[in-house]
Design goal:
By secondary structure, this protein is α/β, with parallel strands linked by helices. The chain contains 20 helices and 18 strands.
């Protein structure tokens, strides 16, 4: 079509002449590669018209009725379309029709009516200077974005921002403060000015873009433009915590307006960006997908603490949060664990009354938990400062459940049962640990911790309690000692489970702890492992050397050794068969050349699992006595 560029042609049905232009927006593979553009009724055509200086003629009014002079004037848009096609067909101008033809058409989000683009007068913000100021505030360090890699997305937006149309044809919002006079006057009314009155004056019917209005939030809610006490105290704030999906819509707008209205002072010092909540498979929640979750339903079913902790535990900076009902249920179990363990502790002498005993009066178990407590306080503080909500929640979960409830409380039971001064000391230590742990947990598990903390301490509310501090107490020797103790108990428990023993089933045992740091813990070891003292006729049918100690067990009468050997031999044969099959496939070059990477990796995982199973079963067989 090069020979036609620059010429003028007659438009069918109207006899108006229009120019022929060439533009890169048009796809030469689409249809004939020649299209008619309507600069006043299509965004892309408008851009083409701007590039080539085309006339923008509005052909329909705000009711989508044809207004241009001609045979179709006064017709509704749908009526006009049918009439125009009929007129073109009668003139023999339609040479082919393609059906069906699918294309993208905008629709109203509320009434689903088709939206027709139409040129009209709008109000705009010249964003160049505002956007530059917003970018400079981050570049020069006045404002930090967390995580830091989100800064690139922020700069990509503010450095390339076009002028912003702030007019919206909606009923709801801040109405644009522009008045039009009977003689073409245009008056913008400021906050301290009265709008013009008199016959013929009308206010613009448009409202401000939602993000324009919300961008004013950091200062307009505090009494600006007056220098109110609230404005002086709360502007700027320390941290803005919001989703990464509105860094363009809201964060950048607040930065631009705050810097403009408050003489270059940014509205916040740190922008901490979170992710979106998605379903358990990582898909965005959508009504059309049918995967939308109402958090109120989960709150009713599992409690608000469970929902809150699940969200916090998945809140890695800038990363979306997948959430499933199983995870909320697990968080409910954690809240129950906090409740039940604290109640048990309170019933067994846990208290916050009086100072902590001197370290010399503490047992190794007491010193271990206090050392771990202070390390946890320090770790959680650092994670809060870095907005690592998922990591701090996970750290608190494992400290509270694994170390406080599953180990310290259990190890202290023998002390509590014995009574006396050691029980009082452990009660005071347990009270201290619970006091600090509940305060650490409060931001992510607020309701359970509030009830338990006020019950434990008698304080007004954990909300106004002092945030825990790391006292600096450390005892690495006690930590190593208790780690060894945990190793012994874990290993024996695993052996018992492998032999099919019930958790509560008591087994005669001989403990050889001489020369180790575990001698003071013999009562706790026996209590936790359900090991009764060796009696007459004791015969060590299984011996477990672990952590420098030796645990000899008499399993006679507790398991059928012959049947257990047969079961393990069957499991061993199955594991060896699995290994041979996986090994055979991985040794087949033809298979490896054709199989997808994920299939090959899955077979490698099966081979590794088979090797682990074979080693474990052989170890169990070696530990069993002869039948």
């Amino acid at each position: 079509y090069k020979h036609l560029v620059g010429k003028r042609i007659k438009l069918p049905l109207t006899d108006r002449t229009i120019p022929v232009v060439a533009d890169t927006h048009v796809d030469p593979e689409f249809g004939t590669g020649a299209v008619k553009v309507t600069p006043a009724h299509d965004p892309n055509d408008f851009a083409i018209g701007q590039r080539h200086g085309l006339e923008s003629i509005t052909v329909m009014d705000e009711r989508a009725v044809i207004t241009v002079h001609g045979p179709f004037q006064g017709l509704d848009r749908f009526e006009a379309r049918s009439a125009i096609v009929g007129a073109l067909r009668s003139q023999g101008r339609i040479v082919a029709e393609k059906r069906p033809y699918v294309h993208s058409v905008g629709h109203c989000s509320r009434c689903r009516t088709t939206v027709e683009p139409r040129l009209s007068m709008q109000w705009w913000v010249k964003v160049g200077p505002l956007a530059k100021a917003a970018g400079d505030a981050v570049r020069d360090g006045r404002v930090a974005i967390h995580p830091a890699d989100m800064s690139k997305r922020y700069f990509d937006w503010v450095d390339n921002l076009n002028d912003w149309c702030i007019s919206r044809q909606l009923w709801w919002g801040h109405r644009i403060p522009i008045w039009y006079g009977p003689d073409g006057e245009v008056v913008c009314v400021g906050p301290d000015e009265e709008p013009p009155s008199g016959e013929g004056w009308t206010q613009d019917t448009d409202v401000l873009d939602t993000w324009f209005s919300s961008g004013l939030w950091p200062f307009s809610t505090l009494g600006w433009p007056e220098q109110t006490p609230d404005l002086q105290k709360f502007y700027s704030t320390d941290v803005l915590l919001t989703g990464h999906d509105i860094i363009f819509f809201w964060v950048a707008r607040m930065m631009m307006f705050g810097l403009y209205a408050m003489d270059g002072e940014a509205p916040f010092k740190t922008i901490a960006l979170t992710g979106l909540v998605r379903d358990e498979r990582g898909k965005k929640m959508s009504k059309s997908f049918g995967n939308v979750v109402d958090p109120l339903d989960w709150m009713d079913k599992y409690g608000s603490d469970a929902v809150r902790f699940t969200l916090a535990r998945g809140a890695n900076p800038g990363t979306d949060v997948p959430i499933g009902e199983d995870w909320v249920q697990a968080s409910r179990n954690f809240a129950n664990k906090i409740w039940n363990a604290t109640r048990f502790a309170l019933m067994n002498g846990a208290t916050v009354q009086g100072p902590l005993p001197e370290p010399s009066k503490l047992s190794a178990t007491d010193r271990w938990i206090l050392s771990r407590l202070n390390k946890t306080v320090s770790e959680v503080d650092a994670l809060y400062d870095d907005f690592q909500f998922a990591k701090l929640s996970d750290s608190l979960y494992h400290f509270a459940w694994d170390e406080v409830f599953d180990w310290y409380v259990e190890l202290s039971k023998t002390t509590f049962m014995a009574g006396g001064e050691p029980a009082k000391v452990s009660g005071r230590v347990l009270g201290e640990v619970l006091d600090v742990t509940l305060r650490l947990l409060h931001p992510v598990v607020p309701f359970v911790t509030e009830t338990l903390w006020t019950t434990l301490t008698g304080g007004e509310s954990v909300v106004v309690a002092e945030w825990p501090k790391d006292s600096g107490f450390r005892d690495d020797a006690a930590e190593r000692e208790i780690e060894t103790l945990q190793q012994v108990i874990t290993e024996v428990r695993r052996f018992r489970a492998d032999q099919g023993l019930q958790p509560g089933q008591r087994v005669p045992a001989r403990l050889t702890l001489d020369g180790t740091a575990l001698a003071p813990h013999e009562a706790a070891i026996r209590q936790l492992l359900r090991l009764q003292p060796e009696g007459e006729g004791f015969s060590a049918t299984a011996t477990l050397p672990v952590g420098g100690a030796v645990v000899a067990l008499d399993l006679s009468g507790t398991i059928d050794v012959g049947a257990e050997r047969k079961r393990l031999a069957k499991d061993l044969a199955a594991a060896e068969k699995e290994k041979a099959q996986a090994h055979g496939k991985l040794g087949n070059e033809a298979f490896l050349a054709k199989a997808p990477d994920q299939v090959v990796e899955k077979i490698r995982t099966r081979l590794a699992k088979a090797d682990e199973d074979i080693a474990r079963i052989k170890e169990q067989l070696e530990r069993l006595p002869e039948a």
